[in-house]
Automatic annotation (TrEMBL):
Organism field: Chitinophaga jiangningensis
Organismal lineage: Bacteria, Pseudomonadati, Bacteroidota, Chitinophagia, Chitinophagales
Domain Sulfatase-modifying factor enzyme-like: 42-348
Molecular function terms, GO-annotated: formylglycine-generating oxidase activity
Pfam family, one: FGE-sulfatase
Protein name: Formylglycine-generating enzyme, required for sulfatase activity, contains SUMF1/FGE domain
InterPro entries from the UniProt entry: CTDL_fold, Sulfatase_Mod_Factor_Kinase, SUMF_dom, SUMF_sf
């Protein structure tokens, strides 16, 4: 169900986002920003391809991550960090681009991802905005995500908590409140693309073989936090043992074996692939080379949402709620959804 507007419909206590992928803003023509070969890969790391075990057979994982299966990826470049507010501002300044969260949605687009017969949302409620994490001040049921997610008119990448907030002092934090089409537009402008799920997971593993985390099997080796996640009792009591309550500046935690930062935690990251909850079952007992994902999305638990794969978990992943701070973890996110905990990084083919 749509993460962005269902909170506006009393009969549903859920969340997801909407806007038209064909929507246009009064933007300048988006052209590639790189001016030289060196510029094109600045801030990127060359990852040498190989065969690896994608997914997991770990019984302490979610079903969509299983089974483990052999995949081969070829060489590619990947951003060392998540795209930051500073980098995204450069893109916006150059192109005039308006993100999904900054555009007024249309009911005609929204209803395509809602159950048939859903009552039309009044036009005055269809305003630009995004989903914002707001920690409750007391313990709440984890069965209802509306206990901590709020639809906030005026929330967007420049105003992460809504009107009155800004990103001053957060220029080196990952940009958030970006939908898939926003991330894809940035990638094209930068002369890059979004990673396939296979490329992303291979890079996140950092050369380790079938380890639970991107740094090994111990979540806090030597009692040291290796990623920005949620500690304490989710969602009301984050004790900030890792030093952060929300996003952290990129590269605040150690890099993985490939020199990549924040592949785990901080923000979920968009990939190029459609999300099919059963995709890995079709890839078992064979070697798949450079998979590009399924041809269509499929998620019976959220049958109306059109979903892309997001990876890596975020600052909201906790050991008592969302244990997605692992390379194999994956989830489907409505392609037109942005939120407080979703960002991205880019890749580029190695030629």
């Amino acid at each position: 169900m749509l993460q962005r507007y269902l909170l506006l419909i009393p009969v549903f206590a859920c969340i997801y986002a909407c806007d038209n992928t064909q929507a246009t803003s009064k933007a300048k023509a988006i052209t590639t920003s790189a001016t030289s070969a060196a510029d094109a890969v600045k801030g990127m790391v060359l990852v040498k391809g190989d065969v690896f075990m994608m997914g997991t057979d770990d019984p302490k994982s979610y079903l969509a991550e299983r089974p483990a299966h052999q995949v081969k990826v070829h060489d590619f470049y990947i951003d060392a960090t998540e795209v930051t507010n500073k980098q995204f501002k450069k893109f916006v300044d150059a192109t005039g681009y308006k993100t999904v969260a900054e555009r007024k949605p249309k009911w005609e687009d929204l209803k395509q991802q809602l159950p048939p017969g859903t009552a039309q949302i009044p036009d005055e409620q269809l305003v630009p905005g995004s989903m914002v994490f707001v920690a409750p001040d007391h313990p709440v049921s984890k069965a209802n995500i509306s206990n901590w997610w709020q639809w906030v008119p005026g929330a967007d990448w420049q105003h992460p908590e809504g009107p009155g907030s800004n990103i001053e002092g957060r220029w080196d934090h990952p940009v958030v409140h970006v939908a898939w089409e926003d991330a894809n537009a940035y990638a094209k402008w930068a002369g890059k693309r979004l990673p396939t799920e296979a490329e992303w997971e291979y890079a996140a593993r950092g050369g380790l073989v079938e380890k639970r985390y991107a740094w090994g099997d111990d979540f806090t080796p030597g009692n040291k936090y290796m990623a920005n996640t949620f500690q304490g009792s989710f969602p009301d009591n984050n004790d900030r043992a890792d030093g952060y309550a929300i996003t952290a500046p990129v590269a605040s935690f150690p890099a993985n074996g490939y020199g990549l930062y924040d592949m785990i935690g901080n923000v979920w990251e968009w990939t190029a692939d459609w999300y099919d909850v059963d995709e890995y079952k079709s890839m078992a007992h064979q070697l798949t080379e450079d998979p590009k994902g399924p041809e269509k999305w499929h998620n019976p638990e959220d049958p109306y949402a059109i979903q892309r794969v997001t990876k890596g978990g975020s600052f909201l992943c906790a050991n008592d709620y969302c244990i997605n701070y692992r390379p194999s973890a994956r989830r489907g996110t409505a392609f037109d959804s942005g939120a407080s905990h979703i960002g991205f990084r880019c890749v580029k083919d190695a030629k």
